């Protein structure tokens, strides 16, 4: 298994730098790319898949530049874009056969892999239905299936859980956790729970830069002393939201339990064990809703 | 002491391979396409929607019927020269479907990616269209009892010019502009041939047609090479 | 043939094909590249393999063709330039070097039959199938190669 190295990768759109000098190495395992909308995740992933040319830096697969490797690199890549399109006339089976052809699989190989993949993503009985009749969640699962068709060594998934219900999300997490053995999976999301349990490493991205990286334990340990809980009344709780980043407000019979992200807690607050969601909010609370 | 040749030869043992060599081989195998480039071309044929071939067949049938109703040779030349390029318009509608479906990103990230899909389909359409053009010319020559080569000259020249124009459009224009460009080129070709038909088809002007065909072929080769080098404009994000 | 079967094939025969290539080209890195190309070419043509008998012999055919093509493209390497040291025990080191030099001095087809017969245990009929030749031609080449080797390795043979 070869590593993927991003070396001072940069992409600009006019005056705006979407990806700013990002350097990192991806090895075996699941990498969760966390960031708010507009952080540059999609741009980074598009460059990683060779469909956007960087303005600076390069991407290496092993020791070779992916621009030079060309189709040999794309051959071991699986990609699910954020806005996944399809040909409306196609059934799921026809679509997967078409994608298999583009990925260089013979008809025999495709016929061998497609039924298993459809089963893995829970679309076993509906392969002959037209994709336009699929629900959003079904389309997304079909997208995940096509990304895995060629048994890629590098699987790049951009917001793969969009449109999936909680049961489907759990199924997806288990699928990815199994798949990542001996392979590299990079998945981007702004939903923390998508990656919290399966990511071997979290990459926090903000405004084109890599803010932090580490295991969930490392990131949450670094946030020690930043998360507090405070039991108070409704009126005070409303006031807290104006001053602090509030991770959660839990209404109880006795009042409101507020979970605050701050390094300067109010009087009476108790230190709490940080979660990955807290870490996310600590960095991105100002960007949520943009 | 005398040694046998076998014993002496067996003293030479090559050095062991690097420990990572086998793993590198297995990794390299995974990058190989099971589908060869020829196999890819063949399967692309299967993915061109039957309605494309049906539309081409219907156009040819319609042209065939009209050819037999045309009053004279000049009308047949004009009909075939100005309407055969519609075959190319049909081809363009197939090529642009990828943008309407939002498949662009997916098809850019595969081993055989979108530029290769476009090239494969252009080649397939090109081969079929030139065959259909030959059939149309043969029908026309039979109807007119005219020389097949003359008719081919009058059909091939505007068709080749249109091909070159379509390749330039693929290279330079956005996806939403492609179909309009192909239609406008067809209309312009038909208009020029209609306006100039009286002198155009006189026997003494055949050298002009041959020169025009030569220029058209040069343009076609030039645009093909340019497209190969610079890629389809619409095949980029 | 699926991926698992291919991996088993590599496991079983990598060493044999590598040794064959290495004795032809006397260069470890090059032999590894040729071995890799052999197996990848086998994979790409695995449908055709069904009609070719033993997998190992088919691999020898592919490897032999690749080695021959390489020799056609490259200038002959002089004895003093041979890069790779054999891995023989030191007592036989001088003999091994002499053998390596003698093999390099043989014409390609003669060296090929020597390698396949003496190092890989193939009989004349099998070598004929591998090299797309005939048994009499193989025996002739083998005799000629043995004469040349006996001349080149006079001292070592005693």
Describe the structure.
The complex is a heterotrimer of chains A (290), B (237) and C (158). With 290 residues, chain A is of the alpha/beta class. Chain A is 34% helix and 29% strand. Chain A has three domains: 1-76 and 152-214, Rossmann fold (3-Layer(aba) Sandwich), CATH 3.40.50.300; 84-151, no CATH class; 225-273. Chain A contains eleven helices and 14 strands. Chain A has a six-stranded mixed beta sheet with strand order 6-7-8-3-9-10, sandwiched between helices. In chain A, strands 2-1-4-5 form a four-stranded antiparallel beta sheet. A four-stranded antiparallel beta sheet of chain A has the order 12-13-11-14. Chain A starts with a strand and ends in a 6-residue tail after the last helix. With 237 residues, chain B is mainly α. Chain B has one domain (43-232). Helices cover 77% and strands 0% of the residues of chain B. Chain B contains 13 helices and no strands. Chain B has helices at residues 5-9, 21-30, 37-47, 50-69, 73-83, 86-95, 97-100, 104-108, 114-144, 148-172, 175-195, 197-200, 206-230. The radius of gyration of chain B is 26 Å and the shape is elongated. The termini of chain B are far apart. The mean pLDDT of chain B is 83. Chain C has 158 residues and is mainly α. Chain C folds into two domains: 1-84, Orthogonal Bundle (Rna Polymerase Sigma Factor, Chain: A), CATH 1.10.1740; 90-158, Winged helix-like DNA-binding domain superfamily/Winged helix DNA-binding domain (Arc Repressor Mutant, subunit A). Chain C has helices at residues 3-25, 28-44, 46-49, 55-73, 93-105, 108-119, 124-130, 135-152, 154-157. In chain C, helix 1 packs across helix 4 (55-73). Chain C is globular and about 50 Å long. The relative contact order of chain C is 0.12. The B-C interface holds B 1-6, 8-18, 21-22, 24-26, 28-29, 32, 36 and C 3, 6-7, 10-11, 14-15, 18-19, 22-23, 26, 28, 31-32, 35-36, 39-40, 43-44, 84-88, 92, 95-96, 99-100, 103, 114, 118-119, 146, 149-150, 153, 156-158.
